[in-house]
Design goal:
Belongs to the TMA20 family. This protein has 190 residues and is an alpha+beta fold. It is 21% helix and 27% strand.
């Protein structure tokens, strides 16, 4: 979505009633973020809406990006927020071979997740249950981590469920919403 460098459009203040709505939408979509909501979006702070190309709305707190949304799609967290609260989102892991494709903006394919270095929920190789026990459905917002790396490298929306990925082991798994080094990552909000 953000393969090229982008420039911020108009910036406007979000009304307090709309801010409460966004806050409740975030808690509904990402329930594990609820204990941290006062840190992420303090009630007394002003949330800003920055318009981006292709009808994308970016919600920021001063110059800190929090969430973005394309038209009426689900709210997706910015990677800087994911890096602060990594355990609050459904996570999958790609193998080393898929990293360069993900960081170039390609759609994530199932072999990157189902091969030896990749991890899906309820994976027998995931001994400590770090990646969860529930299978994820298509349309779920997921955070993609890379084998051998500390921070997440992408956030996107699943195109196929994790149970189907384990069976089929091919096809498009996840559509890239935002990845390290893309236009949204390099956006200057000051």
């Amino acid at each position: 979505m953000f393969k090229k460098d982008i420039s911020a459009g108009s910036k406007s203040k979000v009304k307090s009633s709309a801010q409460r709505g966004i806050r409740s939408k975030v808690v509904d979509q990402y329930p594990l973020l609820e204990p941290y909501m006062d840190e992420i979006m303090p009630k007394k702070e002003q949330l800003d809406l920055v318009k981006l190309p292709d009808r994308v709305a970016l919600y920021t707190l001063s110059s800190t990006p929090l969430f973005f949304q394309h038209m009426d799609d689900p709210l997706l967290p910015h990677l800087s927020l994911i890096h602060r609260y990594p355990s609050c989102f459904p996570r999958l892991r790609i193998d080393r071979g898929a990293i360069r494709f993900v960081l170039s903006g390609a759609t994530l394919m199932a072999p990157g997740l189902t091969s030896a270095g990749g991890r899906l929920p309820n994976d027998p190789q995931d001994g400590d249950g770090e990646f969860g026990m529930e299978e994820l459905e298509p349309g779920t917002v997921v955070v993609i981590e890379a084998e051998g790396k500390e921070n997440a490298c992408m956030v996107g929306v699943l195109k196929m469920g994790t149970a189907e990925m384990k069976k089929v082991k091919k096809g498009q798994a996840c559509e890239a919403g935002h990845y390290l080094g893309d236009g949204l990552w390099g956006l200057d909000l000051r």
